[in-house]
Structures are given as C-alpha cells and as structure tokens.
TrEMBL record:
Protein name: DUF5681 domain-containing protein
Pfam families on file: DUF5681
InterPro entries recorded: DUF5681
Comp. bias regions, Acidic residues: 130-149
Basic and acidic residues: bias regions: 1-10
DUF5681 domain span: 18-91
C-alpha cells in the first residue's frame, strides 16, 4: 500500500521529494535568527550614534557622528553651497514647508476686484443694447478700414 502512495506522488517543480520535505511540527529554521542580527538600518543608526573626537575652535570635543554630519552640512550651507543648503532644508520639513508655502503665497496673482466686475457688466449690457461705437462711426478692434480700395 505504501508503494502505491509513492507512485501516485509526482516529483517536479514545486513538488519536492517526500523524504526531503519538512516533517509536521518541524520549523524550517530551527535555530531562528541570530541574536545580534538586527538589519542594515539598525547598524547605520548604531554607527551614527557612536562618538568621535573633533577639533572645534582650537579644542577637542567628543560628539556623535550624526552631530558631526549636521555641523558639516550647516557649515557648507553657510558658505553658500547650494546642495548643502537644499539638503539642510529637506532635513527640516517644518522649515522647508514654511519656505515653500511662502513662495507659493508670493506667486499667487490676486483675483479681480468688484470694480472690475462692474466695468465688465456695464460693457456687456451696453453691447447687448446696441449702444456700440460701430454705429457712432468709430473704429473697433479687429475690423479693417477698406475705404482705400
């Protein structure tokens, strides 16, 4: 009977041999993840938190690498480096957001005032009523004077 079950099972893509499959209740990773394996972001954060000694104003100061990077970006931005300035603005979303909104506020064109609507309304009511300059003998825009021909 067991020979018949073995013959019914076809080994192929996505169907490994029965003897190499995990047994019921057995994990595919019995030892689990190693304790110190924390991932790339954790390694970067740990590295940025580590301390270094820098010379600042003639004396040596111990600061984190992240603080040293921040000082370097600010110093470059103050010297006029546009890439450093843009990086600094991107790092502080509140400051960058305020600057963008201020620029957008300056670029907005004010809308028409009530007086403008009154002028347009008077113009259109006058043209509908037949009170145009054409009848008075004046030239209008878009019409050519063909009296020379």
């Amino acid at each position: 009977m067991s020979d018949k079950k073995k013959k019914d099972y076809e080994v192929g893509y996505g169907k490994p041999p029965k003897h190499s499959q995990f047994k019921k209740g057995q994990s595919g990773n019995p030892k689990g993840r190693p304790r110190n394996a924390r991932g790339v972001l954790a390694s970067v954060k740990r590295e940025l938190d580590s301390k270094i000694t820098v010379r600042e104003g003639g004396r040596q100061v111990t600061i984190s690498k992240a603080a040293a990077m921040a000082k370097r970006i600010v110093a470059s931005a103050l010297q006029g480096d546009p890439k450093a300035l843009f990086t600094l603005l991107k790092l502080d979303p509140d400051l960058y957001g305020r600057l963008v909104s201020e620029v957008e506020a300056e670029e907005q064109v004010p809308g028409p005032e009530a007086v403008d609507f009154d002028i347009l309304r008077d113009y259109f009511t006058a043209t509908e009523g037949g009170d145009t300059e054409d009848e008075a003998g004046g030239d209008t825009v878009g019409e050519e004077n063909h009296e020379d021909a």
